[in-house]
């Protein structure tokens, strides 16, 4: 059983993708054209934000958001200790300093309370991550930020279409960064990313930064970069966006089926969804102290699994210069040792879930 499957063999989907491809080819305009403009409008509206700015990938969405907000060398940015390393690397890329805080032990995401305790006079921004598809309490972060004059950038690369207290992810933060890496809940057929914001000045600055710092041809107001969502990917994303809600519903159904099938297995912790949250299960992550054995049993049964992520960010060689210690973020370290991602994609069948559960029960 595959860990993930993009479902590209669906004939109706294929027809629409072929039509999108043909439309772009017939027009012959490949960069900064009508497909991008249309996708930006559609995605902003979906997220409940006034603007969306398409960029080259999720990492650039984070970096350019920090740059657009003026976060630079000398500034501190509060990040979760447990996340994909891209979150931390984006802060490093603008010369700022990551200040890690432990995540909540039940949802694996950062809480406003934990962030509040890490604020110093140098804090410029808070960067919560809606990890695995569980949305963060963005209203809580915004309230905290307004008390301290901070910028809130949400990393929603794993959380397209999730919501918290009825508010869709992408509408609540000062800026929200998305990745359209092909396996994400909303994925392109190559690299892609976007930032949503309701701040028109921030949006205008992001539009400049992604295009060599230019808003008028050959006039460069600042030292921007080249990071644009191309027409072909924008056209494909316009095919996938209308399917996002039903695909997320399917993921939620699979999560429920897993919860049923794996209920009561001792030593196995299942994902937890807060009452106010609509989790979109980018990944279905369980925890066990016997990960190696469980993973081996699943491999034996032909079930592919992955570990997100096996090394805590503060112990990555890339951050050696910061001299973090082992034991400094014990929960992040424990999660790195215990998390295991089971197969999760919208087309997974009940029989697949049953055979995963059987292999897990055979072992734990
Ligand atoms: C995927 C991901 C990113 C980076 O996105 P890319 O498009 O691969 O650059 C950033 N943060 C998180 C949490 C991610 O999962």
TrEMBL record:
One of its GO terms (molecular function) is transaminase activity. Keywords: Aminotransferase, Pyridoxal phosphate, Transferase. Signal peptide: none annotated. It holds the Pfam family DegT_DnrJ_EryC1. Coiled coil: none annotated. Belongs to the DegT/DnrJ/EryC1 family. This is DegT/DnrJ/EryC1/StrS family aminotransferase.
């Amino acid at each position: 059983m595959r860990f993930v499957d993009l479902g590209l063999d669906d004939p109706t989907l294929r027809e629409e993708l072929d039509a999108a491809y043909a439309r772009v080819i017939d027009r012959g305009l490949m960069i900064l054209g009508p497909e991008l403009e249309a996708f930006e409008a559609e995605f902003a509206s979906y997220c409940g934000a006034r603007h969306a700015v398409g960029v080259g990938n999720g990492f650039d969405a984070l970096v350019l958001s920090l740059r657009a907000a003026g976060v630079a060398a000398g500034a501190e940015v509060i990040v979760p200790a447990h996340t994909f390393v891209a979150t931390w690397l984006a802060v490093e890329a603008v010369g700022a300093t990551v200040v890690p805080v432990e995540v909540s032990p039940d949802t694996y995401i950062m809480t406003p309370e934990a962030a509040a305790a890490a604020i110093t006079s140098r804090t410029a921004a808070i960067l919560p991550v809606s990890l695995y598809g569980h949305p963060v309490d963005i209203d809580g972060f915004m309230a905290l930020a307004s008390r301290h004059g901070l910028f809130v950038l949400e990393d929603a690369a794993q959380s397209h279409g999730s919501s918290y207290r009825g508010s869709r992810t992408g509408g609540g933060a000062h800026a929200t960064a998305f990745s359209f890496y092909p396996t994400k809940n909303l994925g392109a057929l190559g690299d892609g990313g976007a930032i949503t914001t309701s701040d028109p000045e921030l949006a205008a600055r992001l539009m400049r930064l992604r295009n060599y710092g230019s808003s008028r041809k050959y006039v460069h107001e600042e030292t921007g970069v080249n990071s644009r969502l191309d027409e072909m990917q924008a056209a494909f994303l316009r095919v996938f966006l209308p399917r996002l809600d039903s695909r997320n519903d399917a993921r939620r159904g699979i999560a429920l089926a897993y919860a049923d099938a794996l209920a009561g297995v001792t030593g196995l912790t299942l994902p937890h969804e807060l009452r106010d949250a609509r989790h979109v299960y980018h990944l279905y992550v369980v925890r066990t102290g016997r990960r190696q054995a469980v993973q081996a049993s699943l491999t034996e049964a032909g079930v592919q699994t992955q570990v997100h992520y096996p090394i805590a960010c503060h112990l990555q060689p890339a951050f050696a210069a910061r001299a973090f210690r082992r034991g400094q973020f014990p929960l992040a370290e424990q999660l790195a040792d215990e998390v295991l991602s089971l197969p999760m994609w919208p087309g997974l069948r009940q029989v697949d879930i049953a055979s995963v559960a059987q292999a897990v029960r055979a072992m734990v």
